[in-house]
Design a protein that fits this description.
- The complex is a heterodimer.
- By secondary structure, chain A is an alpha/beta fold.
- Chain A has one domain: Rossmann fold (3-Layer(aba) Sandwich).
- Chain A is built from eleven helices and eleven strands.
- By secondary structure, chain B is α/β, with parallel strands linked by helices.
- Chain B folds into two domains: 182 residues, Thiamin diphosphate (ThDP)-binding fold, Pyr/PP domains (Rossmann fold); 128 residues, Rossmann fold.
- Helix content of chain B is 37%, strand content 21%.
- In chain B, the strands form three sheets. In chain B, strands 3-2-4-5-7-6-12 form a seven-stranded mixed beta sheet, sandwiched between helices. Chain B has a five-stranded mixed beta sheet with strand order 9-11-10-13-14, sandwiched between helices. A two-stranded antiparallel sheet of chain B has the order 1-8.
- Chain B is globular.
- The chains are: A alpha/beta, B alpha/beta.
- Chains A and B meet through loops of A and helix 3 of B.
- Bound molecules: thiamine diphosphate and magnesium ion.
- Thiamine diphosphate (TPP) sits at the interface of chains A and B.
Amino acid sequence: MQTVVTNVQTREFVITAIAHQPPVQDGRPVAPSSDPTTARTSLATMWKIRRFEEAVDDLFARGLMHGTMHLSIGQEASATGVCLALRERDAITSTHRGHGHCIAQGADLTRMMAELLAKESGYCRGRGGSMHIADVATGNLGANGIVGGGIPIAAGAALAYKMRGEDRVVASFFGDGATNEGAFHEGLNLAAIWDLPVVFVCENNKYGMSFSTEFSMAVPHVAERAAAYGMPGVTVDGNDLDAVHAAAAEAVDRARNGGGPTLIEAETYRWKGHSKSDKNLYRTREEIAEWRERDPILAFETKVTESGLLTAQDVAAARDEATEAIKNAVREANAGVDADPGDLLDAVFAPLDTQDVTR
Amino acid sequence: MSTLTLGKALNTGLRKAMEDDPKVVLMGEDIGKLGGVFRITDGLQKDFGEARVVDTPLAEAGIVGTAVGLAMRGYKPVVEIQFDGFVFPAYNQIVTQVAKIHARSRGKLPMPITIRIPFGGGIGAVEHHSESPEAYFAHTTGLKVVAVSNPADAYWMLQQAIAHPDPVVFFEPKRRYWDKAEVDLDAAPPPLFSSRVVRAGDDVTLLAYGPMVKTALQAAEAAEAEGRSLEVVDLRTLSPLDLAPVEESVRRTGRCVVVHEAQTTLGLGAEIAARVSESCFHSLEAPVLRVGGYDVTYPPSKLEEEYLPDLDRVLEAVDRSMGF
Ligand SMILES: Cc1ncc(C[n+]2csc(CCOP(=O)(O)OP(=O)(O)O)c2C)c(N)n1
Ligand SMILES: [Mg+2]
């Protein structure tokens, strides 16, 4: 599959490969665990996310990567399941914890790694870093360092699609903490009153930094908030790839056919601390251990091998493919040129030759 | 005398303010159990309870908005904004409510709010986590704005800001949180809204605040080795400005350089340059020069050294000033 995009630096047209097309049979979405090809690619995607983040964790620990980062290890199924339900020309908005969304949406691993390593070859020429990757070619409108920042942006992108009469959908990822920000409430209401083709995906990992949802909300489920805006709200096991995909496929279908937005709450857990400096003072070791037992990748592997859909070798091959891909990405990214401080003043505004207001 | 880091001095100042006045209430994200991402409120929830050290959800507009209501009803809220860039969801509340309510009510509704903001770069963070938004607040009528540069000021100025009857936006230089100094916990502090000469000199007057005071002092040190004598003023208060010590200095040196991390364009330096030019016109040997950040989005950590004003950029401006 190929698509034409504009390269923002050179303003030339370039051809970029795009990853996905949702599996459909008889007009119905196919569950990842019921089709061997989808099962294998989904598994590989989840492993790529995990291996990518393990590599990032390691690079930071060894002082080879700078800035900050937020890992989504343990949450791989929500990103993978939602993006699997999207079509090639759909879009997403992402968060500070966005590596998974980016990979599931089909980003190039080397360019991602290069971005985190502040290389010219990175997605934002090394200027965005972990928290601000945007991959316009795959419809990733950007991670966001402002919690809740992507939510109204997703509504706006969806409004554009609606105004242009295109049947494209936007999926907006955010955390439980973001649902307490004003931007969440304003964004959902606008999407609802304008019937916008958006799927709001709350990855509820039980904490916004150190603060438990037990205290940050007066309702047990984020999905209940959907009722206030007159849109459907569903809670799913965010560590069950099939469940996430089923909910997302239904919501995407509704959005694409003029049925308006949906709020999906995917219940999950981050295994690692909030960011690199977290000492996990606000949660117990038992809780972390309990959730590690509910590993979304292992759960899916068990399901598809027990059903006989994939063999143990298939599963190992998917994992090895991911491991290899990440190793390559780290090697290739490291070989890139460092972002050039001489260009520090670039790109604050559109290029000068596009700024003639008399045109 | 105690040796304290700037962060610990703030923590000690908060503790003292809470002991002195039961109406002082702290609010913010992750300030309770976690003690704040920079541990400035460490241990305070344990000692003062959850009613006085309030862990809030992510809701900056809501946090500052409720602080306004608390202030109207007799409390002294101290709000922590986690990083500079996260103050913007609350900016509406700060500009449209906090800054205006005393004037709007002709003083009937008091607004003794302190808004603590860790600001500036140099810790290897990124956009939203390394910015210097002080000019937005200093530009807003109805807000008072201060910036601390050292542990002793951190300890005293925070208590003074909390006790002050008007809203104070309190900037903390996050990259200096770990800098240590002796703090005399019994000495009488200088007034809150006052600037101070922190190093005497004769050739050029260097003005700085927050994280750049240390840089300015280092520049003065380096200049001395080259036989140049720089006077350094720690502005401490950004609104209202206290330019009396600055003018006294500039009348002697005839030269003035203002340093800040914030973008140069329409930064504090612009206002200061205008005022010093007016008040010291006949003493000036050179135009007032500014050293600041470039007009770009804050760069990623690997490039921030290039962005941040450093010794070389300060000394280069000193050279230019001397060259006139
Ligand atoms: C407006 C704003 N306030 C505060 C922060 C600091 N911060 C970054 S992530 C985070 C927690 C977000 O929680 P949640 O939305 O649940 O996402 P999670 O980190 O759990 O994935 C906080 C407080 C921020 N980035 N933006
Ligand atoms: Mg969360």
